[in-house]
Amino acid sequence: xxxxxxxxxxxxxxxxxxxxxxxxxxxxxxxxxxxxxxxxxxxxxxxxxxxxxxxxxxxxxxxxxxxxxxxxxxxxxxxxxxxxxxxxxxxxxxxxxxxxxxxxxxxxxxxxxxxxxxxxxxxxxxxxxxxxxxxxxxxxxxxxxxxxxxxxxxxxxxxxxxxxxxxxxxxxxxxxxxxxxxxxxxxxxxxxxxxxxxxxxxxxxxxxxxxxxxxxxxxxxxxxxxxxxxxxxxxxxxxxxxxxxxxxxxxxxxxxxxxxxxxxxxxxxxxxxxxxxxxxxxxxxxxxxxxxxxxxxxxxxxxxxxxxxxxxxxxxxxxxxxxxxxxxxxxxxxxxxxxxxxxxxxxxxxxxxxxxxxxxxxxxxxxxxxxxxxxxxxxxxxxxxxxxxxxxxxxxxxxxxxxxxxxxxxxx
Length: 412
Ligand SMILES: Cc1cc2nc3c(=O)[nH]c(=O)nc-3n(C[C@H](O)[C@H](O)[C@H](O)COP(=O)(O)O)c2cc1C
Fold this sequence. Notes:
This protein is 41% helix and 13% strand. Helix 4 (99-110) runs parallel beside helix 15. The strands form four sheets. An eight-stranded parallel sheet has the order 4-13-12-11-10-7-6-5. Strands 1-14 form a two-stranded antiparallel sheet. A two-stranded antiparallel ribbon has the order 2-3. The chain contains 15 helices and 14 strands. The protein has helices at residues 17-27, 30-37, 44-54, 99-110, 124-131, 145-158, 176-179, 190-197, 200-207, 229-239, 246-255, 268-276, 298-309, 324-332, 342-374, and strands at 56-58, 73-75, 78-80, 84-86, 114-116, 135-139, 162-166, 182-184, 187-188, 259-265, 281-284, 314-318, 337-340, 387-389. It has a single domain (11-175, 238-410), classed as Aldolase class I (TIM Barrel, Alpha-Beta Barrel). Bound molecules: flavin mononucleotide. Residues 35-36, 49, 87-90, 117, 119, 138, 166, 263, 285, 287-288, 318-321, 340-343, 345 line the site of flavin mononucleotide.
């Protein structure tokens, strides 16, 4: 029997991230939904990001007093209210007017950090000022390095807490479901143009009165008057730097005085390189299955990265997290925090800030309930002894006591 998800518009009646996804699908024109949803090529990695969770099962404890439960923990020297944060998603203004501010405000209200994408439509200073809370900023390493230096200066002056350098995008992934919607770059085909007209609510919210939202944090990089999506896309394509190397990270390390995170690591050797060049944390990530198709999921490599490099830097990860139980599986394997991509973008797309808040609330409640069901009252006590890996390979083979930094309770 096909079971139905919630089919209305009240975000508070969404009970899962899947409910919010279905709502986002109804509110957005097809080309926007495909932009969020799509992975690259055959979407093997996109699927792997979800499938990996069903290969890891919980081993709960029973008859444990779980009346009081704690999911807050320390991350990079500060307390976060939940073991997750909102990761960078570009062009959120296309999903909802001022999407970046709405997401940042939802994160601030929940006591978790927000990572502003470099490809965002609200100036970073405005996001920090209007949302309050803890804002990190994601950057790409553009060919014009002076631009990056200037951006870092702006970020420092605005009070951005951490820079997150994305390193998996030296070359763009091939996202065919996205490409199919256009007859040439940025020109929708007729089917999609008609589809846009069938979404007047979205048009009034996003397009009125100024047209397509423009990029607000690429100022010095784009030629004057070229901050339209079209102008920016051409320039950004030219600015992606395939010659990027660890020396560039070292250069950024020298000029950025606060926390520096590298996003796009997928193995222990690179995690160790990151630690060597003085990076404070890494995000294990395959970019939500949007870059190298066929890449492992971050969860696949998390245990070995924690074992090899966990004592040297903070280990975060993303990809496919849709349930509180997914998040706790990562924490039990030794992750310090999880970044959300699509989960909160679905919430934003379904209903602006209340939608993003609902996504966070759903996950927070699920984390709390799962802790209770696991017989674990404090997230800091969660370790690999609560898990059994059902799939191929033996990623859990080392008992927690032999990991580089011991059980999770020692660090949080
Ligand atoms: C619509 C969309 C836009 C994204 N934009 C960026 C971006 O601007 N910078 C970046 O580093 N990662 C970007 N990502 C990747 C996310 O930060 C994250 O790695 C990925 O979404 C995690 O997978 P999940 O969506 O399954 O949670 C984007 C992802 C999506 C879905």
